[in-house]
Structures are given as C-alpha cells and as structure tokens.
Request: fold
Amino acid sequence: MSYINKVNELINEAEIQYDKGMGDNAVFTYYIDEAIQVANEIPSKKHKSNALTNISNSLCNKEQYDKAIQVAEKIPYNTDKYETLSKIAESLYDAGQTNKAITLYDKAIQVANEIPGKKHKSNALINISNSLCNKEQYDKAIQVANEIPSKKHKSEILYDLSNSLCNKEQYDKAIQVANEIS
Reply:
C-alpha cells in the first residue's frame, strides 16, 4: 500500500470514529496522529504536500483549527500551503474567530509571496484577495490585491473589489479603489 493511500485510509477511519462520537475524540486524534506520522515518512515532496493537506483539511472540517494549522505549516509546497492556510482562515472566519482568521490570512499571504514565478504568485494572491472580499474584509483584500505582481490581474481584482464595494454602497471606498486601477 502506498504512503498516500495509507494516510487517506487513516484519515477516513479517524473521520468515521469522530462521526460515531466515540469518547472525547481520543480515537480520532490517534488516527490523525498516525496519519501525520506516515505522511512525514513520505519521501516525495509532492505526495507529502498532498497527504498533509488532506490531514489538515480533515482537522479543519472537524473544527480542530489549531492542529490543522500546525499540520498545514509543515506542508512543503507553498502553493498547497497557502491554499490550506486560506481554507482554515475562511473556516475560522465563519466560526466567528475573526482575529485569528486575519492572522492566518497574513501567514497565507506571506507564503503566497514566497511562491516562485509571477503567474503562480499572482494566482495565489488573487485567490486570497477574493477570499477576503467574500468575507467583506475589503481593506485587507485591497492590500493583497496591490501586492499582485501582474498588472493585468491586479487591475482586474481591483475592478472587482470596486464593484463589490459599490454593491455594499461603500461608494467613497469604491472610487478610491477604482482610482488605483492602472
């Protein structure tokens, strides 16, 4: 059995046990810890990223955010890492933990800025800016949009942000953002 299959099998078993409501989640934690141990043995960075992403997503889905963050921070590929951190940030925001979500978005932004290649970095920052906009965190979304290295994509996102602000009747801010479009 491959490492990734073993990790996914352990995650599935953890989720089954969690959903059964067995005890204080000790069984869930046991299987997740086993999955982490197997994931850490994976020699391929790509497969290790995939495994750790799956584990982190499972933890996030079960609202075990702190452990999900710990696992996400060990993901070797920055593209997978920023996506996973952003997903957790979205979940934290939805759970009413806004300050913690914003702090995690900051980590995701930092990781996204470390992604090599203008196109990949731009795509990562676009995704984060869109996520922040969807959470009505417009100032932060604008800040991220202004970090996008591709002028074309930066202009498109600022345009979208300006429209979103108009839809929320924040006309002064919408005009300010529209003036930033180059």
Q: What stands out?
A: The CA atoms of residues 1 and 95 lie 37 Å apart. The chain has a mean pLDDT of 93. The chain is about 80% helix and 0% strand.
